[in-house]
Amino acid sequence: QVQVAESGGGLVQPGGSLTLSCTASGSIYRIQIMRWYRQAPGKQRELVASITGDSIMDYTNSVKGRFKISRDNFQRNTVYLLMNDLSPEDTAVYYCQANTHWGQGTNVTVSA
Q: What is the rounded average pLDDT for all residues in the chain?
């Protein structure tokens, strides 16, 4: 059994920042890649950011320069998504994926 748990979502004003956390635990031998996806109401789920086991990072164009994915220095199965300069268009449920295992998602709402 593998568990993937996200946290850190909430309500934030436009221009604000939020940091999401994701931890994978259980019977997971080696994490090759961890990804953050998001799904806005009425839209398809989209890949936001990823980080490999070698810490190679990638971002979708709409968040480049605003979002930063990172790995915990002590717990390699924990990653973060620092989101800056948030706009209402960033409102979505954010999901974490560790290899092929999904979390339940955490809600991010950007509103005045």
A: 95
